[in-house]
Amino acid sequence: REGREQGYSLLELMVVIALISLIFMVGAPQIQAQFYERKLEHAARQFIYHAQFARQRALYGGRDMLLEPRVTHDDEANWNSGWQLEGISAKGSPEMILRHSLPANIAIYSKGFTDPHSGQSQIRFNPAGAAKSKHGGFVANRLVFAHTKNSSLQRHVILAASGRWRICNPNSATNRKELPC
């Protein structure tokens, strides 16, 4: 028995490879779904971050700030293109502060924050920090963020009458502490 080599047989190696493949096939969709959820959650949180930034600039700068859908190359304002933040100068003309594009595979399926008088989608933060429409009405509303590769993954970004922003998941269990959408 001195000349016999130690090692694994071809059958043993094939069984191990088959088991690893099976584990990967079962786990990969779960990992991908978690990746999609994190990307969606990040996009929704970016929107809230920029809205809070706009409110702070309005409070400290003493002038109106607009958070509105990003204007595309064909001059159409659309939340799916992202959003932009503009400050209103003393002369009344808009001054671009920042532009943010939505990440790939994230879409906003909503016409939220549309002024009923002008038909424009925007959130205007006045120097008091209140979110108002161009004509002074309150802008409580929501935007629905969704992942294009898995339409059941959604996050609703909601501005309440109190001025508080929140993100809710319409697919979450109701026994959690989350408020319903």
Description:
20% of the residues are buried. The protein has one helix spanning 10-61; strands at residues 65-71, 77-88, 94-100, 106-108, 123-125, 131-132, 141-147, 150-159, 165-168. The radius of gyration is 24 Å and the shape is elongated. The chain has 181 residues and is α+β, with helices and mostly antiparallel strands. The model has no long low-confidence stretch (mean pLDDT 85). It is 29% helix and 30% strand. Strand 8 (150-159) and strand 9 form a beta hairpin. The protein is built from one helix and nine strands. The protein has a five-stranded antiparallel sheet with strand order 3-2-1-5-6, with helices on one face. A four-stranded antiparallel sheet has the order 4-7-8-9, with helices on one face.
Task: Give a topology summary.
Blueprint: H1 10-61, E1 65-71, E2 77-88, E3 94-100, E4 106-108, E5 123-125, E6 131-132, E7 141-147, E8 150-159, E9 165-168
Antiparallel strand pairs: 1-2, 1-5, 2-3, 4-7, 5-6, 7-8, 8-9
